[in-house]
Amino acid sequence: MRKSIFYLVDVFAERRYAGNQLAVFMPGYKYSNKEMQSIAREMNYSETTFILSAKPKNGGYPVRIFTPGEEVPFAGHPTLGTAFIIREKLQRSRPQQVNLNLKVGQIPVTFESIGKKRNRLWMRQIEPRFLNTLPASALTEILHLAEDDIDNQFPIEEVSTGLPFIVVPLKSLQAVEKCRIDQPKYFELIKRIESKAILVFAPQAIEPAHQLHVRVFVDYYGIPEDPATGSANGCLAGYLIKHHYFGSAEIDIQVEQGYEINRPSILYLRGKIENGAIQVWVGGEVVLVGKGEWF
Hints:
18-stranded mixed sheet, 2 domains, 20% helix, Diaminopimelate Epimerase, Chain A, domain 1, 18 strands, 6 helices, alpha+beta
């Protein structure tokens, strides 16, 4: 007996087989928590989402997000990819905004037309929280870097827009490319802090149009390296604004990620300070790849 329809999409991708893969399960069958976790492990993508209702509730569609290891309250590419499927498959009117009710709260996703049959999706994330700063020595051994690879003009800092990340500023593209995780030391560090994942970045890029090159390591969630991470890049946007990384409290940039694992991704970051609060938006395109049935 058929239980549910699911769709496969590539997020933060401008063509198929790039960006971050996502499986989106449509409403129609009530899975248990254990079943949803087992399905996410079976799919083995960075995340799998489940739309719990075919109609909005309390102004948004209830959605749950699972990594292969556990459920998470928020994640970026699942938010955009799920909003895309809701608009395409559940809403005939093709509205310019879709709201998702996640465990972190309601996240609005807006659709910006950028050409024939193409849209860039934008999510406004919740206001960044800035947690602990960490010494360079805490990360160099974990990442197999030298202290000179760290850009000590800026702090190594935990930031959260719903899911916390350690943001590590590096000096060069070469430093980002040579990063690899020492798992025992990584797991020892994350026992003591709120963040379970690491974002490294540098102000050099492979593509001339991009301002930053990023990598994100998420071994704790069962994913050694993520190809495109909207939640982490939202944290990065808040970090860039707080520290005036580009000499301003406002940003509008393009970021590349996933190149080291052959999943090139493009993320658009916007942000500013308004009424004393940092506001961040993360955008990107979504490409429909496939459809299936889950038995």
